[in-house]
Amino acid sequence: xxxxxxxxxxxxxxxxxxxxxxxxxxxxxxxxxxxxxxxxxxxxxxxxxxxxxxxxxxxxxxxxxxxxxxxxxxxxxxxxxxxxxxxxxxxxxxxxxxxxxxxxxxxxxxxxxxxxxxxxxxxxxxxxxxxxxxxxxxxxxxxxxxxxxxxxxxxxxxxxxxxxxxxxxxxxxxxxxxxxxxxxxxxxxxxxxxxxxxxxxxxxxxxxxxxxxxxxxxxxxxxxxxxxxxxxxxxxxxxxxxxxxxxxxxxxxxxxxxxxxxxxxxxxxxxxxxxxxxxxxxxxxxxxxxxxxxxxxxxxxxxxxxxxxxxxxxxxxxxxxxxxxxxxxxxxxxxxxxxxxxxxxxxxxxxxxxxxxxxxxxxxxxxxxxxxxxxxxxxxxxxxxxxxxxxxxxxxxxxxxxxxxxxxxxxxxxxxxxxxxxxxxxxx
Amino acid sequence: xxxxxxxxxxxxxxxxxxxxxxxxxxxxxxxxxxxxxxxxxxxxxxxxxxxxxxxxxxxxxxxxxxxxxxxxxxxxxxxxxxxxxxxxxxxxxxxxxxxxxxxxxxxxxxxxxxxxxxxxxxxxxxxxxxxxxxxxxxxxxxxxxxxxxxxxxxxxxxxxxxxxxxxxxxxxxxxxxxxxxxxxxxxxxxxxxxxxxxxxxxxxxxxxxxxxxxxxxxxxxxxxxxxxxxxxxxxxxxxxxxxxxxxxxxxxxxxxxxxxxxxxxxxxxxxxxxxxxxxxxxxxxxxxxxxxxxxxxxxxxxxxxxxxxxxxxxxxxxxxxxxxxxxxxxxxxxxxxxxxxxxxxxxxxxxxxxxxxxxxxxxxxxxxxxxxxxxxxxxxxxxxxxxxxxxxxxxxxxxxxxxxxxxxxxxxxxxxxxxxxxxxxxxxxxxxxxxxxxxxxxxxxxx
Lengths: 428, 447
What we know:
CATH superfamily of the domain at 177-214 and 290-427 in chain A: Thiolase/Chalcone synthase
Helix content of chain B: 40-55%
CATH architecture of the largest domain in chain B: 3-Layer(aba) Sandwich
Structural class of chain A: alpha+beta
Distance between the termini of chain A: 29 Å
Oligomer: heterodimer
CATH topology of the largest domain in chain B: Rossmann fold
Structural class of chain B: alpha/beta
Shape of chain B: globular
CATH superfamily of the largest domain in chain B: NAD(P)-binding Rossmann-like Domain
Strand order of the largest sheet of chain B: 9-8-7-10-11-12-13
């Protein structure tokens, strides 16, 4: 028997301002940031000492000691220690995936409330010892005699003292995410001007949202930072045009610069989800409901698809299941990993050949009203601490929909490393 | 931020030294702790003339478990308080009885003891002689406050006919450790209905309290005391102060609401928040304030305007919006506005600040009748020299002088301001409306 389901409510969110790498949060660990973010959420909604159904969060760059990162953050927070927690990781899709997981348990009636979150630091990143050194040390620890120990140590070479840093590169292609996206941008003929324009709009929208107090109940300052450090309210297309390309530079017409790509960032976010009844009984608002979600993956290794194009595949599945068209949304949140990612995704949905051959659709999904896209800024301006982006988007879109009134609908699209994509529909 | 001089003057060597040099010896004040008795020793209650509050006062003491001794008792025990019902004085000749009662009693007053005189208002006296006698008590009490030592205070409650029910709450406050730094004050009461059944330990239980500027300093202290007394606290502060605001909220089990109270839609956002989360509000404390000091001739608009906007205009706008919001301000609501000694005495370099804080006093007085009609009250507190992070950065000499020029010879603590605000927020403080209560240790400034 299929259980009765209900739609999970998004009550609100909290995040700390996102910092640029090796800057304001250089000394903060993932656990520090996630704990502070949970505590900000607790303070906003009066959850001190409360036992919630579950806290689900994750980090993309994670120390091995942080195997139970989310649970440790809960224990360090003001939530009841009886609140269970677990970690998830789906690259840049982590935050949104966490929200989907919590929402699904609420939908099934398994829990009444939960927090979904994510955190990442590129400043306090884990360094691993050289893999051959690691083998030596393991051999050493299992050696029983002096001779065995000396034999093991004899294997040490100077180069093995160099630590291994996490790389922003695909394991199977060796290409960085930016290099992958440069290929996609070239394939779709995404112009430098369009990318820079999208980046400028992101900064202006984010700055305007801060100025009108939109983030007053979405962000809690941390370590002296009250706004996202990457935000440049006064940037312009002219200023961005001066930047040199940094990805795909083998091509004389390379288009991707530091200005139209997200910077490495540090930060954390959290979203409070609940059943309508749980929220109502505590006098808490319901900003929106998480209606449905979908993930997809593409073969970027040998399948001829761009690394970050999976959301283009996930969205039509989600639309079909919900009887919606791409134009049935009041707001669109397309994660700006790179400006060209957003533009290539939109171009793909407008392209009859792509929609027919790749998506198997009779007609293209069509264009969207660009004035409804990322209306409160997105990752190009805010920064993109990988696992924290999903929570930022869910909370902001839910609030935007709530402000617009009941029955408004929003689409979230987040691309992720490994050729994956996570998308969701929210409705106020 | 401790008071090094007070600690030194109370140490073994220090106390001998300050005594020989004739230096002031500030006392360690008795401050309220949950569960603490109302007084640390017995009380004596006297009357001058045919008083009408003697029974009321005795009942307050008995309910609080305070032993009441006859005025003539001469055993050695130090008194916790000396109370005098002087509502019966009809002419200056009756004041001789006041002197006769107080002189021996004050000799027996213990550390952090309390002198509390209750009198009728001079304004509705039956004769010039009675008005003179009642007014005379003001001069007497203010002088007694200056003569008392060891952290003892003296205050005067002015009780018009019909306001008897309003007396117990204020009497409890002035006897308790909550009023540690309130000294030499005259507080007029008005006749009004006073709700019964207040829990002495948690007088604000079930109340929703908004505190602006709650992220630090006096505001954080107000939030803590409100929560200790049972209120659900909504802490408000500018978004930039959000991290410390969240810490305060989490510490006290309240909530944090980040809001720039000078934003055009600030009041409406606050109202929407209160409606959604709490369905209404019982207590509003306008504490948020800023300083931008400069001599008037050198002051620019960038220093003048924000001080007015935060310290005065936001209080006006928010209060008006709360009054207009249908059903939001609950019956028996309490609004407490933070003014300042600067608003009473003026302060060099603070024309903007003093103007805003004096404006607060005008606002409170003007609104009092409208609040009374709703069974609500609006009052102001005017802190004197309060030891905060801000005063810690003052030059040593300025700080030392500033903190000593009051009858208690020391600066107050943020909690002293908070206690007074929490008291004015109590249901039993219904009779205090449109008043300015100074929390200044009877400062010599503006007295």
